[in-house]
Amino acid sequence: MNDKENIDTIGLSRRTVLAGLGAVGIASAGAGLGTTAYFNDTESFEGNQLTAGQLDLLVDWQQTYDFGEGHQFVSAHPDHDGDGEQSIEIDGTVYKYSDFPDEEDEDSNGANIPVLDCETIPPLSEADFGTDPVTGEEMDTLVRLTDVKPGDSGEITFSLHLCDNPGYIWMQAGNISESGGAGTEPELIVDPDNMGDLGDAINARLWYDEDCDNVYDAARPVDIMLTLDFSGSMLYNQYGGVVSSDPITINGTTYNETTKIDLVELGTRQFIDFLQNAGADAQVGVAYFDGEGSNDTQPRTGILQPLTSNLSDVDNALSNLRQKLADVVTGGEPSSPGDGDGNPDPFSNASGIATGTYIGEGVDDAQGELDANGRASADKRNIVLSDGQSFNGTGSTQFSSPIDAANDARAASPSPATELYTINVNGSASTLLAMAGPAGGAGGDPVFFNDLDDPLNIPTVFGNLAAQATQEKVIMDDTLANVLAALADGNGVPLDGNRSTLYDELNDAPDDADRDAFRGDGVMHCVALSWELPFDVGNEIQGDTLGFDLGFYTEQERHNDGAGPSAAA
C-alpha cells in the first residue's frame, strides 16, 4: 500500500502478495516507559517510542498481446487514461511507456516508466485491467484472454520496487486449473477425453528484463569503460568516505570499516566476474578521475586499465582500490596508481589531498580509449560513477564540462557513439542525469541514470549493469504448464537481487551465498513472462482454459537468511 500512516503491530517481518500484485507495508508502533526512584526523587524517561521498519513491495507492469497484428497494449499499472499503455501524470507532466524505448532494439516500442518509484506508484486498488483487444470484453483480472488462437503470443513485464528495507523476493503462482471446456467434434477426434491441454501447448519464457522493455535481449559484442571517481570523498572519513562501521571482505582482504571505494571495488569486480562466467563478447577498460593538488594545475585523471578482452587483467586493475585511490589523491603518480605501500587509513588527516572532481576529464579519457582501441563491430558503453560535484578545485585548470563531454561521447566526438550510464552516489544528481543517455541520443534519460541515496547499493547497480552487458538472464524456458508448476512449487522461484552473482534460481538453495536480497531503495528490477501458442498446435486445445494466479512474496533481509518460510502464506 502507499499509505504509510497506517499503524500496525511490531513483529511483522513477512508479507505476501499473491493473485493481486499488491504491496504491503509496516508503519509504526509506540511504547512508553516511566520509573520512580526512592526518597521521592523522580526521574522520568518520557516520550519513548519504538518504530517498526517498513517492508513495502510495489509492483507496476505492462502487458501486451499479439493476435496477428503486432503486439497491442492490453493492460498496465499505472495507466492514468485507461488505454492499456503504462502512463502516469506527475506534477502536471504525463509520462508514458512509449516515451522510453530502447533505441538500440528495433523490437522495442517503449519501457516501463523509469520515473516510477515508491512515492509515485499508485495502489493496486486503482489498477485498470483493460480490455481484451480481440473480444472487447472487460478484463477483471490481469490475464483474461478468451479467444486465443495458434500463432498468438503475449508478454508481461513486472517492475518490482522494494521500499524502505532490503528483502528477499520470490515469484509465485497458485490456483492453477485446466479444463477441456466444451468438446467440439474436431477436438474430440484427436482428444476423446477432452483433457485440458493448453498449458502444455503454450511455450513460455521467464527472465529478468533488465531494460524493462518487454523484449528478450540476446547478447551483442560490447566495449565498456568503467569511469570511476577517485576523489578523497570515496575513501576518507573526513569527507564522508566511510559509510559503515561494519567490516567488509573483498577477495580475501577484510577491512574494519566500509568505504565507498570498497563498495566500488566489490561491485566492479563482481561485474567482471559475471562477464567472464557468462562468456560475454566484451572488452573492458578502466578510467579514473580526481581533482588537482595544491602544487599542480593539471587534473589527476587517466586510464587505469586499457580496453582488453583479458578480463583477468581488468580484475587485477580493480583490486586494492583503496591504495590506488590514495596514491592519486595524495600526489602519487597518476599514470600508475597502486605503487604505494601499506593499507591507507580512512581515518587519517586528509586535509592535504587533491581537491575538485574532474568528471568531464574522466569521460574524455574514457572516450579517447574507446576511440583508440574499441572494436568497430561492438556497441560502446561508458559507466560513470561519482559522489561529487564537478568543479575547478583550488587551481586554475580549465576543465572539460561533464555535460559537454558526455554530449560529445554520445554524439561520436571523437568516434564512436557511446552509451553513457551514470551512477550518482549522493553527489551531483542533476549533472549526472544530464549526462546519461543512449548513443546518438539526448542526455537526461532516466533509463541510463542510477541515483543512489545509500552507497551500500553500489554493488547491486553494477550487477544490474553487468546483466545488461550480456544476454538477459533466462530463469526458465519451457511450457507454460511447467513454468507455472515451478512458480507454484513450495515458496515459488527465488529471485536474485544482484544478477552479477552466479545464482541458479531453479537448482540452487534460496539461501545460497550467491543469491542477494533486493535493496530497499525502490530501484526498479524487472521480471518478464512471455508466452506463445505455436502455429502447429492441433485441434486438441479447442475450447481449453488455463487459470492461474501470479504474485510476488517478500520478507525482510534482517533476521532472515533467504531460505523463506516453511510454507508460502
UniProtKB/TrEMBL annotation:
Residues 387-401 have a biased composition (Polar residues). SMART domains: VWA. Residues 331-348 have a biased composition (Low complexity). It comes from the Archaea. Residues 329-369, 386-411 are annotated as: Disordered. Residues 223-465 form the VWFA domain. This is VWFA domain-containing protein. It comes from Halorubrum salinarum.
